[in-house]
Design goal:
alpha/beta, 60s Ribosomal Protein L30, Chain: A, 2 domains, seven-stranded parallel beta sheet, 12 strands, 19% strand, methyltransferase, transferase, methyltransferase activity
Length: 280
């Protein structure tokens, strides 16, 4: 049975991961080994456990200790469970817990781009998407709409940041992903060249004079396609667009000139991801 520990002192060093360390500090906690992340809500925690991540401790609101939580705890009976009332936990963490539960977990080593993209036919590439909410929403769409993998440039928000993983509903633990290693591969030139060496055609999502429509037959018929999405506001860098094989636009009406990157990703994944399953 898990040790259940009621919080009586905010200064417990075991609570640092929840109360006093920011996302960056957690990421670098065990350097040179992989760091720590915080998973929020039972569904996200369960998907992380199913993906092979190991828990360090649980933090849970008292009223949430029940059948669902105990089922999760029972898989790791020696892992401590810290608990308190909602207001105490909110004071400790600085935010209200979604479904009253957090879990500190050990990160796994990142795989290489080649490993993540092995056998993939449709992948998403995120260039400098810095908002964790957008990253999480893109992963949720990628999981639902037939993306085989997600690649991120080094400036992107980390998919394992608490908000990103929560917004994704835990799909960051189901869709293979990794970062381009900036020590080995430059972006965009080196990254796009690597994708081409693996057989991918690249499609930059951008509104330019030479854009093709997202339902272009040649585009949809590509055997292996990487859909490249840009940062919030500015979109893709001009050099990235010029380096890609296609520039692709989503037709819009009523004078709307662009969509939020998460919304655009859902449209692109639906059209181009479904093309894979339709045999196009």
């Amino acid at each position: 049975m898990n040790p259940i520990i009621e919080i009586t002192n905010f200064e417990f060093p075991e609570l640092d991961v929840y109360a006093r360390l920011n996302e960056s500090q957690l990421l670098h906690f065990n350097e040179p080994n992989p760091g720590i992340f915080i998973a929020e809500s039972p569904k996200v925690i369960e998907r992380a456990l199913n993906a092979g991540y190991h828990p360090i401790s649980f933090l849970i609101e008292k009223k949430e200790i029940g059948a669902q939580a105990e089922e999760i705890f029972s898989r790791w009976e020696s892992v401590p469970v810290y608990t308190a009332e909602f207001e105490v936990l909110k004071q400790l963490t600085g935010f209200g817990l979604t479904r009253g539960m957090l879990c500190a977990m050990e990160r796994l080593s990142l795989k290489s781009v080649e490993e993540v993209c092995k056998n993939a036919r449709r992948i998403a590439v995120l260039e400098n998407v810095v908002n964790p909410t957008n990253v999480g929403a893109i992963f949720r769409s990628a999981a639902a709409l037939n993306m085989d993998a997600v690649l991120l440039t080094p400036a992107c928000s980390d998919p394992l940041y608490r908000r990103a993983a929560r917004v994704s509903m835990g799909t960051v633990f189901q869709v293979p992903w990794t970062f381009f290693d900036k020590k080995k591969v430059s972006w965009p030139d080196g990254g796009i060249q690597l994708l081409k060496e693996m057989g991918f055609q690249t499609a930059a999502m951008a509104l330019t004079d030479d854009s093709v429509s997202i339902d272009d037959k040649n585009l949809m018929a590509e055997e292996k396609l990487a859909i490249v999405l840009g940062t919030e506001g500015e979109g893709l860098a001009k050099h990235t667009i010029a380096t890609c094989d296609y520039t692709v636009k989503i037709p819009m009406m009523h004078g709307v000139d662009s969509l939020n990157v998460a919304a655009a990703s859902a449209v692109a994944f639906w059209q181009l991801g479904m093309a894979k399953t339709d045999g196009c």
